[in-house]
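Our preliminary data section would be incomplete without showing what the modeling component actually yields. Below, a chain of 388 amino acids is followed by its predicted structure, encoded as tokens that our downstream tools consume directly.
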Amino acid sequence: MTARGRRTMLLGGLLVAGGGFATALSGFWWPWRADDRLTVSGTIEAHEILVGSKVGGRVAKVHVREGDRVKPGQLLVELERDELEGRKAEAVATVAQSQAALDQLLAGSRPEEIARARAAAEAAQQAMAGVKTWPRPEEVAQARADVAAAEAELAYAEAQHRRFEALFRDGAVAAAELDNARSRRDADRARVASLRERLRTLQTGSRPEDIGTAEGRFQEADAGRRLVEKGPREEEIRQARAALQAARARQRVIETQLAETVLTAPADAVVEVFDIRPGTLVTPNRALATLIERDLWVRVYVPESQIGRLRLGLEVAVRVDSFPGRRFRGVVEQINRKAEFTPRNVQTPEERVNQVFGVKVRLENPEGLLRAGMAADVTLSLASANPR
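Predicted structure:
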């Protein structure tokens, strides 16, 4: 074999060996770098939003379908709210009642209430004084006069009775007249006994228990007067304020629950999963719709040796398999401050032990062609980046 033939065979063997090695590595992630560019691979990602309600209930209205694009604040679902509206009305009434009670305490006693309490205390004081000074001398003198008059009448009735007895024995009067005389005598005796007892009572004066009862009634009325004049206690006002705060808190809770009956989109997104219809009963804290935000990004990993050539805001080119002839624009939005080991899907022996930095690339997707889950190749133009 000539020298030229040997060179040809050697070159062919190297090409075959090189092709086999390339085939063996084709299944692995391999950052490709020229002098001014670095190409790394990743997967397009997007935030997933699970929209649900903290309250359960029956679905009243559905405003979107799967695949619809929604704007922030756009209505998605409405739940029935009749029961909560009733509870809110009750809570509002309770707040008004608690506010009125607090206002009444803060206003204090009305002039009419103070005047009435003072009059009651004065009447009780006069009654107590009357019990203590009872009886008056005039009453005792009148009682003595009444006893004397009754005794005189009794003496006349007894004399009449004796005279009728003598006449009856002589047959001069009938038995009925004698009975009448006896009845007047007995009645006068009873009247004299009663008047004498009243006189003794007046001479004795008020009993201690009567005086004590009168004093107790006066003290009670006077204490009531002082309470009315002083107004409510500070503890009562604090208690009323606390009751008002509790009522307002219950009202806010119900208003929050009412707000949970209206579900809106929190961001610009696409409805990915949505399988409820009007009339569906839903439980609290259950996801009713899954939204995918329209903002997309790619998370790639750059070797430590190249991270110094990157900067925030660097524009990059992104390619996806679904559109092989197009290049999409991206911007480096985040560079991790902490290094980490090469991700698991990087399995080349030379790169597996190297440290890398995670880089987040924000994608521009005005036409909506890119979707979460697509594999993407990101080409970084290192030459245009200023070392940090």
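The two ends are 59 Å apart (CA to CA). Confidence is low (pLDDT under 50) at residues 1-30. Preliminary results of this kind motivate Aim 1 of the renewal.
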